[in-house]
Amino acid sequence: NTLQNTKAYRSKESLREIWRQISKEEAEKVVVAYEPIWAIGTGKNATKEIAEDTIASIRSVLKGLFGEQTAEKIRILYGGSVKPNNIAEYMSEKDIDGALVGGASLALDSYRGLIENLVK
């Protein structure tokens, strides 16, 4: 789809523009959190495949700017309704380094469920 390709290109260009402003040394200290705009505050989440594809695309941009070694040092988290019942799926993906957890971290039982499902 041409519209989707155009939006993806613009997103990558915006990302490149922002990252060009920092050094390789600074980049290595950054943690990136990706949450789809349509997921913010909605309770909706991306599939693990969509999250992985998007984060892999972000990492690809970082590799182009800083090289593979630096890009691999940059932690990229997925946020977007991460809950005990789906956290293990996200964490099983190659490019997802962690989770940005919102509401699920506010209640002890839910938070415990996040941890328990990661260590299974």
State the shape: globular
Strand order of the largest sheet: 1-2-3
The CATH topology turns out to be: TIM Barrel
State the low-pLDDT regions, or none. none
**Which CATH C-level class is it?**
Alpha Beta
Question: Helix- and strand-based class?
Answer: mainly alpha
How far from one another are the termini? 40 Å
CATH architecture annotation name: Alpha-Beta Barrel
Largest sheet: 3 strands, parallel
Query: What's the overall average pLDDT, rounded?
Result: 89
Q: Could you give the count of β-strands?
A: 3
- Whole-number radius of gyration? 15 Å
Number of domains: 1
Order of helices and strands: HHEHHEHEH
The number of helices is 6
Strand content range: 5-15%
CATH superfamily annotation: Aldolase class I
**Fraction of residues in H or I helices:** 40-55%
Annotation keywords:
TIM Barrel; three-stranded parallel sheet; 6 helices; globular; mainly alpha; 10% strand; 3 strands
Provide structural commentary:
- The structure is a single chain.
- 52% of the residues lie in helices and 10% in strands.
- The longest helix is centred in the middle third of the chain and has 19 residues, at 48-66.
- The N and C termini lie far apart (40 Å).
- The protein is mostly helical.
- It has helices at 2-19, 24-27, 48-66, 68-73, 87-91, 108-118, and strands at 31-34, 75-79, 98-100.
- Helix 5 links the parallel strand 2 and strand 3.
- A three-stranded parallel beta sheet has the order 1-2-3.
